[in-house]
Amino acid sequence: MVNIDILAPGTSVAAKQPQQKDKDEEWILAVVINYNSDKNKYQVEDVDQDEFGQKQRYMLQPRNVIPIPNASEARGLAELDIGQDVLALYPGTTCFYKAKVIEPPSKNKDGAFERIYKVQFEDDNNEYKHVMSGHVLELPRMNK
Fold first, then answer.
1. What is the average pLDDT across 4-26?
2. Do 82 and 60 touch, CB atoms closer than 8 A?
3. Which end of the chain has the lower number of beta carbons within 10 A, N or C?
4. How far apart are CA 55 and CA 51, in angstroms?
């Protein structure tokens, strides 16, 4: 059995929603509720409310849950490379989408963009967006 670090309740994560018919794979901003060791699954809660004012909960395998570093942890992370494919939180939303690193924080000349990545999201008309470093995550390697 592989020994993994169990994420504590309250940890912010990017969570891959269960595949829904006629929908693309979607990663959402969520919070860990608990870990069920018998099933080897996390229960996570979407930070966003659905159309009925409820927060959806999902049971997910650990490979579908990526911890989001807090501000102090994000400062200590190695920068992701220019051109690297990543999952990034789309500005103004609670969804993560595939993007490419255009400029890491160390290359930003403007002090207002300290610890900010410049990324280009797929299918976003070649526009660049600025995303906080803690919301730019390494793209997980998925086994198809």
1. 84
2. no
3. C
4. 9
| CB contact at 8 A, 136 and 125 | no
Predicted TM-score of the model (pTM): 0.86
Q: Where are the beta strands (DSSP E) in the chain?
A: 12-16, 27-36, 41-49, 55-60, 65-67, 85-89, 95-103, 116-121, 129-132, 136-138
Q: Above 90 in pLDDT, residue 129?
A: yes
Q: Token pair 């299918």 is at which residue?
A: 123
Residue 62, SS3 per DSSP: helix
* DSSP H or E run through 140: none
CA-based nearest residue to 42, from 28, 26, 62: 62
Please check whether residue 32 is in contact with residue 7, taking contact to mean a CB–CB distance below 8 angstroms.
yes
Q: How is 113-124 classified by DSSP, letter by letter?
A: GTTEEEEEETTS
Torsion sign, CA atoms 45, 10, 29, 19: negative
